[in-house]
Amino acid sequence: MPEDGGAFPILALREGAYEQTGIVLGTPKANIDKIATAGPRIAPIIDLELDGLLTAARPLSTQKTDRSYDVILTGDMAGYSWGIDGGDALKVKTGERVEITIGNMSTMTHPMHLHGHHFQVVGIGGRAFRGAMRDTVAVPPMSAVTIAFDAGNPGKWAFHCHHLYHMVTGMMSFVTYDEYRND
Question: Domains (ranges, CATH) in the chain?
Answer without folding.
Answer: 1-44 (no CATH), 67-177 (2.60.40.420)
